Amino acid sequence: MELEGTYTFDAPQKVVWDALMDPEVLAKVMPGCEKLEEIEENKYQGVLKIKVGPVQGKFQGVITLSDVNAPDTYTLNVDGKGAPGFMKATGNVKLNSEGNSTVMQYDGTAQVGGRIASVGQRLLDSTAKALTRQSLDNLDKQIQAKLEPEPVAAPAEATVAPHNGAATTAVPAASAPARRVSSAPTEIEAPSEFEFAMGVAKNMLEDLVPPEKQPLLALAAASVGVVAVLMFFSWWTNLIANKVAKKVVKQLT
Hints:
Elements: E1 2-9, H1 13-20, H2 23-29, E2 33-40, E3 43-52, E4 55-69, E5 73-82, E6 85-98, E7 101-113, H3 121-146, E8 147-149, E9 158-163, E10 166-170, E11 179-181, H4 193-208, H5 214-252
Antiparallel strand pairs: 1-7, 2-3, 3-4, 4-5, 5-6, 6-7, 8-11, 9-10
Helix pairs in contact: 2-3, 3-4
């Protein structure tokens, strides 16, 4: 199983790097993560509860970072096992600063075995994509919650030489305020099991349906939803009407 992609954070590279190196932050952003703690430098131990189709359970594993070149790149190795089976993975992460944003490039390969391998390659791929995407989305939310504008002093006024006998005052144009990392705790939680499952389903549909037909699929899904609501409303009103009619007939007889 292979995985690769990019993700853009609206934050400085150093801030993103620090978040990636913080096990407390990572434990909050990964769906199903019950524990993640550093046991020695660049080595972490964690517990991940995950559901892939009909197979669910907990993985206990060790994550080791190598080739760490702060704040640009690192390689991670994952070795986990549990009731659903086992997983071994290797991945590479690279950060690039682009203006006020940071672009992450990632790629990796994984091997799985045991019951979890029986669900099929497509479902495994969709689950891996959903897990990665939701983790990065929530990491971005954590970062944005901790960033706050730097206090900006009032712009100094500059006196301009008189023009036509009248002196004028120029005020420098305002620029976008810089942002700093807040020390206040953030309360953003990882996606729930239902949200994670919806993410898996979304990725499977995107893999199965060509991009040019995905808007039609969304429209069809919305139409089906409207029809379902109307059918339910019709059934409910008929049920109430029948009950009222039976009550009236009973009173008359």
